[in-house]
Amino acid sequence: MSTFNTKRFANYANFDLTINKNFYRNLALVLFFTIVGIVVLSFFMRWLTYQMSAPSGIYNDLTLTSLVVIVIMQFSLYIAGGCTLHPLRNKQGRITNLTMPATNLEKYTWHVLVCVIGAIVVSVVSVAVADLINYLMTIAVFKSGEGVQSLFVSVFSNTTGTAIQNFTNQMHASMNGVTITDSTYVSPQDMVLGNILDASLFATWAGIFCTTSIYAFGNSLKYKFNLPITYIILKAIEFLFAIILFVGMIWFTANIDTMDRMFAEETMRAFFENFHIYLYVWGSLSILAGIGFFVWAYNRYTKAQLCNKLNR
Fold it and tell me: E-strand spans in 199-267?
């Protein structure tokens, strides 16, 4: 049983879905109705903006809604990562899992698929359904769907950063009484900002993947109540980084010459123009770290005991 057998994998998946279907279904329903509910609430906020005779570019914009949906998906993936080994939360579940005729690789692959990949699939379907509902409500109330931003495209593509930039420009233009007529012109500053926004979105999703893998690793350490423990550990790490950053700021303050060189106009301009490269590198490193944590979690899973200090 050292190889991956698809039939054996399917049998184990069918068994797990039969035993834990209520748990998976409830998680999926909570995520689905949360995303749809946020979009419906957003529609009523857009309707109020429409009633105040705001420019169409503002009440047809779904940028803020997209950001809220991304945050919801982010935390849902963290929870999903922390539930990868949910069937092992009690001793009977661990005994049943060990006696199932499947390899550790087949079992762990299924756990990751049903939780993490399942959460992604539910999120995609939820956003698509919410987008359709929003479009139908827009046609019913505004009598036209023209100009309404697609929630699905905004969430799952690099247009989120561009949408933020366009929304900001529209707001400034409306406040100053200016009409934007040439939408094809893009200044060098806008190109740099667009690159940074696109790279930021890549780094954000890469960071979400990495954090999800950390929650999965936390679940491999402790099967029960692992979500709060992992959260506390992450916050402790963030606090440690904040202390390091604070010490670094004190050091820079004590070395005025170093600060002058670092924050010189040419240095800052070069840093700003190449900042998107740093973000892509950071995102790539986050993806590699995430893969490493999943592998580490799998190694922990293969060495799992029926009863240890963390899982009694």
Answer: none
Could you tell me if residue 120 is inside a domain? yes
One-letter amino acid of 304: A
Alpha carbons 187 and 165: distance in angstroms, whole number: 13
Q: Does 212 reside within a domain?
A: yes
297 is in which domain, residue-wise? Answer: 6-176+185-302
Tell me the per-residue pLDDT of 149-196, one tens digit each, with 9 for 90 and over: 788 888 877 544 444 455 455 544 444 554 444 444 445 566 667 777
Report the domain count for the chain.
Answer: 1
CA gyration radius for the chain?
Answer: 24
| pLDDT number for residue 186 | 47
Q: Which residues contact 219 (CB under 8 A, 6 or more apart)?
A: 81, 82, 83, 84, 85, 86, 226, 230, 297
The token pair at 39 is: 């979009």
Give the phi and the psi of residue 274 in degrees, each rounded to 5.
-105, 10
Neighbours of 238 (CB within 10 A): 10
Taking the C-alpha atoms of residue 177 and residue 174, their distance in angstroms, rounded to an integer, is 5
The helices-and-strands tally (H runs, E runs) of the chain is 13, 0
**In the prediction, which pLDDT does 259 show?**
59
In-domain check, residue 311: no
Out of 14-18, 42-46, 141-145, which region has the weakest mean confidence (pLDDT)? 141-145
Per-residue pLDDT for 293 more than 90?
yes
Sign of CA dihedral 26, 33, 84, 152: positive
- CA angle (281 as vertex; 278, 283 as ends), nearest 5: 110
In a domain, 310, yes or no: no
Least confident of 43-57, 70-84, 229-243, 282-296: 43-57
181 near 148, Cβ under 8 Å? no
